[in-house]
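User: Hi! I'm working on a homework problem where we have to compare a predicted structure to a textbook description. Could you give me the structure for the chain below?
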Amino acid sequence: MDWSPDRHLRRRMALTLLALAALTVAFATGVAALLAWGIEWLSGLFGLEIPFEVRLVLGGVVTFIAGIVVLRRALGEDAAETFGAAVVGPEAYPDLHATVTRIAQAADLPAPSIHVTDRERPLAMTTGLSTDDAKLVVSTGLLDALDAEELEAVVAHELAHVKNRDAIVMTLVELPLASARNFGRVLQHSGGAHFALVGVALASYAFWGVGRLLVASLSRSRELAADRGASALLGDPAALAVALDTLDDDVTSAPNRDARETALASLSIVPDTNESSGPTLTYEGRRPLLWSVRLPVRRAHRWLHERYLRAALATHPATDERIDRLGTLERERTAR
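Assistant: Happy to help. Predicted structure tokens:
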């Protein structure tokens, strides 16, 4: 089939990567400077005098090492392992394998390995940093909820993600955000009170917030592009529209998961109604760094999220919007 990756999505990916790269450089520079001030305070306790240039270099080294640690940890995470999904062969799921192979051939892609997790919640996602090592992860709940045509549409949607090569981009844009959020949480719960640590924690959360808005916008674009790609592969948007409607109802009624699974499920074909919107500002059993302001911050965060940020931070467009867009594609197809 003559179908190429989505050019509009490619431009969005490039712009988002450039914007996050600039934000990351600014954030890392600011963190290094704040750590340099922290080193000055610490050295003063021992009567040492360290030149500012040396302190700035030390702060940069600490920031770089922390970034490398987070990078290695993030790249080592695997969605299939997180969800306990096992690789399955054609003998176990012959219909699923036949569908994946057929759609992969139509998209001119290597067939991804198929991993199935025994979960009630409908789940479908693709992972992998290239088209050659792609993995398709689905849950038994998804397989039970869909008929053959709907499953074919979901597989086409997921392989459109592979065709657009957006998994590697989403991994890259998520890494600096994970670094900032985790760094802020460590400092928040450290119990320290030095202004440099408070500044780094606040800067980390500010960087996370701005970056999250950029990444959420890109994530919504990639879902719409995958919907269009699936429609192009199948030549019929109707089956995907029905599948989205079915899966949206099933996800809403499914039980909660732990935080790691919820975060990864944002990559699934339908949004997770329980996904976290931001860093938690309390921690049971410890004195948080921002203890004195935690209640006003939490209340302001909740009010802003409910009033303004829920739609901006959503990783998926509203399912009704996606179905309407697919309906438009169907009308355009039949009018030709």
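For your comparison, note the following. The radius of gyration is 22 Å. Confidence is low (pLDDT under 50) at residues 274-295. Good luck with the assignment!
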